[in-house]
Amino acid sequence: MRLNKIALGLTTLMLTALMIPLAFAQPTWSLNIYSLGVGGAAVPFTLNGAPQVTPYSATLPEGTYTVAMPPTVTIGVNTYNFVVWDGGSTNPTRTIILTQDTSIYAHYELVPPPPPPPPPPHGESPGYWKHQFLAYIDGKGKPQETWADLVDWTADIDAYYSNAPPDFYGYALPPVSSLDIDSSGTFTTVDAYNIFKDKAWKELWIGLANWYNWAAGLGPYET
Ligand SMILES: [Ca+2]
Questions:
Q1: C-alpha 156 – ligand 1 centre gap (Å)
Q2: How far, in Å, from the CA of 182 to the mean position of ligand 1?
Q3: Cut 0.85: pTM above it
Q4: Distance CA 64, CA 29 (A)
Q5: How far does CA 37 lie from the centroid of its chain?
Q6: Domain boundaries, the chain
Q7: 34-82 pLDDT tens trace
Q8: Residue 191 CA, ligand 1 centroid: distance in Å
């Protein structure tokens, strides 16, 4: 009888010892965090400051959690902006009070790529540039450009006499030394005038016109 009482007492003690942690254990809930609109890619974020990635799924103790999604994320060549949570909040950081199983969805949208650069401005024709030089030097007709500009542009071109021509929207400008037809060692308005005036130099016309188009900030002349 005495032994039975002791055994019963021990059993009660053991059961109580088992029950205490169960009674005080915090409830746990699942927390699922998804990102949408990013082509299924993983988006890095922080959960209470700890780095995580979407899709995130965990069973966590009941409590308060801070989810901070990046306002902008780059995946490959694409950039995405955070837009909205499924609940309507547009703040990429949100607080979750986890008292039930919870799934939240961060919506992203693709940032459109920048538009292509505008096409180069229209380049003037060899006939246009020929006319400028003939107008000033031969007094034929009315020029559209000032002589001061023509001189400045000629000096800009001459600066490349010993250097490779600059990139001109992919157009291959001829070496300036090939335009120095009087072999003076510099490219001058006299060279330009003589090239444009004489059909013997016809093959240089487009290249020379494009040098002036380059100097004037225009695009290549398209034939
Ligand atoms: Ca010359």
A1: 14
A2: 5
A3: no
A4: 12
A5: 19
A6: 25-110, 126-215
A7: 999 999 999 999 999 999 999 999 999 999 999 999 999 999 999 999 9
A8: 5
Chain-centre distance of CA 89, in angstroms?
Answer: 27
Q: Which of 218, 124, 214 is nearest to 166 (CA)?
A: 214
Those residues whose C-beta lies under 8 Å from the C-beta of residue 206, and which sit 6 or more positions away, are: 126, 221, 223
Cα 208 to ligand 1 centre (Å): 13
**Bridge partner residues of 94 (DSSP):** 67
Task: Compute CA distances 162 → 159, 166, 178, 185, whole Å.
Answer: 8, 12, 11, 10
Among the CATH numbers 2.30.30, 2.60.40, 1.10.3470, 1.10.8, which is that of 25-110?
Answer: 2.60.40
How many angstroms is it from 109 CA to the middle of ligand 1?
59
